[in-house]
Amino acid sequence: MTAYVVQRLLLMLVTLFAIITLTFFLMHAVPGGPFTSEKMLQPEIQAALNAKYHLDDPLWLQYLTYLRGVLSLDLGPSFKYAGMSVNEIIAEGLPVTMKTGALALICVVALGVPLGIVAALNRNRWPDTLVMVIATIGVAVPSYVIATVALYIFALRLGWVPTFGLDDWRGYFLPVFALSGFWISFIARLARSSLLETLQQDYMMTAKAKGLKRGTVLFKHGLRNSLIPVVTVLGPVVANLLTGSFVIEQIFALPGIGRHFVLSITNRDYTAIMGITIFYAAVLMVMIFIVDMLYLVLDPRIKYRADPK
C-alpha cells in the first residue's frame, strides 16, 4: 500500500511537470504577446514592459525562471492587473468558487444518488420513468441553456432571485441550480444502472436466500458495491465544481476563478491563464488520488501493489 501511494505521488508530480511545461510553451507559441492589443503601444513602452517582466530573455531562461517560481508556489505576476500576482487572483476568486461548488456538490450527492436508488428499486414503474425522463433532459440540455432559461424565468419574470452577483443568499440559487443540473442527472443515471447490475449478482441472490431483511441486503451488500462507479465519477466532478465553471460564473457575473480565467484569456494575461490551468490540474489529480484511496473503504477486495505482476 505504501509503495503504491509513493508511486502515485511520483506519477502526479511527473504529470504536473508535463502540464506546466506544455502550458508554458503553448502560451508562448500563440502569436502576439501579453501586451498586444488593438491600441498599439509605443516601441519604448513595449520594450520597457518586456524588460520588466523578463519577456526579452531567451525562451529557455524564461521557462527555468517560471519553473523555479512554480516550485516555490509562486505563479508569477499578472500582466493585466497592476500590483497583483496570479496567486492573489486565485485566492480572491477561490472562496466564491468553492462556496458555490460545495453547495452544488451537496445537491449532486443529496439528490443524484437517492434518485438513482429510487429509480432502480422501481424499475419499469412510474417513479423510474419520471426520474429517467428528468435525468435525460438534464444530461441533454447544456448548463448554459439551463442557466439562461432559469435566469429568465426566476429572475426576470418572477423576480424571486437577483439576476447577478451574490448580495444575499438568494444569489446562490441559480448558479448552484445551473452547476448541479447536469451532474445530478448524470449521477442519477449512473447510480440506477450500477445498482440494477449489482442486484443481479450471485451474492445478492445468496443474501436474499438466507432470509436477510430487504434493507440489510440493499444497504449493506448492494449499495456499497454499486457506489464504486459513482465514487469514480465524483472525483473529477468535485474538482470541476470546486474550481469553477467558466460559463456559469460569466453568465451570473460571479467573481470566481472561472470568471477570472475567461477574463485572462480575453486580456491575454498569459501568467494568469497558465497559473489557473496548473491549479485546476493539481486539484483534479488530488481528487482522483483521493478516489483511488476510497476504493479500499468501499471494496476491501481491492488491493494495490506497486508491481502488478
TrEMBL record:
Cell compartment(s), UniProt: Cell membrane
Give the chief site where it resides.
membrane
Q: Ranges for the ABC transmembrane type-1 domain?
A: 94-295
InterPro entries, alphabetized: BPD_transp_1_N, MetI-like, MetI-like_sf
Record Pfam families: BPD_transp_1, BPD_transp_1_N
Instruction: Give yes or no: UniProt keyword Coiled coil.
Output: no
Which GO CC terms are listed, alphabetically?
plasma membrane
The residues forming the signal peptide are none
- Transmembrane regions: 9-30, 102-121, 133-160, 172-191, 227-252, 272-298
Gene3D superfamilies, sorted: MetI-like (1.10.3720.10)
Keywords assigned: Cell membrane, Membrane, Transmembrane, Transmembrane helix, Transport
Q: How does it sit in the membrane?
A: Multi-pass membrane protein
GO BP annotations, alphabetical order: transmembrane transport
**Which SUPFAM superfamilies does the record cross-reference, listed alphabetically?**
MetI-like
Stated family:
Belongs to the binding-protein-dependent transport system permease family.
Recorded protein name is Peptide ABC transporter permease
Q: Which organism is it from?
A: Devosia insulae DS-56
